[in-house]
Task: structure prediction
Amino acid sequence: MNASLTLRFGSAQSLQNRATAADLAGDMLMRSTRTLSRQQIKDSLDKLKARVAIMSAPNQVVARIETTRPNLVPTLQLLGSILKEPAFDPKEFDELKRQDLAGLEEQKSDPQALAFNSFTRYLSPWPKEDPRYTPTIEESIADYGAATVDDAKRYYVEFYGASDATMAVVGDFDSKQVTDLVGTLFGTWQSPKPFERLANEYRDIPATGITIATPDKANAWFIAGTNVPMRDDDPDYPAFMLANEILGGGFLNSRLAVRIRQKDGVSYGVGSFVNASPLDKAGQFIGYAIYAPENVAKVETGFKEEVERARRDGFTAEEVEKARAGMLQNRQVDRSQDPALSGELSTEALCRPHDGLRGGLREAPAGSASGRCDRSASEIRGSGEGHDCESRQIFRKRQRRPSRSRELRD
Result:
């Protein structure tokens, strides 16, 4: 049994300068409730043979559940207590802060953390007060160091609620029983502030190069990428994914891996990935490599030459068909896994069904992947790194997998 519950709240205006408090509030939820200590929460989950993970962002919190059919109801009841009755114990908060600050201190000299932080800040700039802003590691240390348990509690009181919530449950369960229970647990829990989605924006960022010195580290990170004005229902998106799969998404069989890792022997791991939002025309192509610092010139040369070769010559029909078959198989496997399906259903409840991609992959001709790579590669930036809709308060079943898959929305 797998379930995913997402609570959404707040707006760009109301969430200004609240990102640190939001993160700490979310992390405090599993640490104690008004009636249960952290150890008692853990013992209760062990007894129920259940796992609960809670992840938070400035405008939402996501809870994922894995358990058995007999234990789904008591696990949901426990989750209700965790979400609605956090204790915000000062001792737990102090321990959480120490752990967060220790992790941030380690990131100050970690090549991967530094590279991705600089890369994200450059390609996705936002005003410092905006909840979408990516702080420097030093800024994060200052923010977490100054945060108090009252900041986290105040954020929780001012934002948390289920007025704009979605829930997906996948597995063998009693639909009416779970629907009634979810309504009882969360149906009257109102969010103090209205939810407005934090839209992403495509930004045409000029190419640049950023070098960060970490002289005490044996390995280095290379990250290169570009923003792409694309949504995941764009006609070019299937070809975009196919092009990436051939170039770097196919790991050891991809062109970047064959060239930089196997032929040149200058990288321990190399690849690329793409992403696109279901709601905003703000996608990205990102390539990366892990290498010894003395090999940086060879890594950059190999990366640029492979991207240029793909742009100039495109891909062969054999490469496209092999990538297509692999991607379709992977998507079929993903959609047969309950954890992945519950997350996808919860996302669909906010926007739209996402069944079109498999059809787009099957139909995309070989030349379209080459063309999409041509357009993406010509825009590449380097650094030393459907339809709009809303969640609705309804419950309904989905028949995607008869007798196994059902979706609940709240």
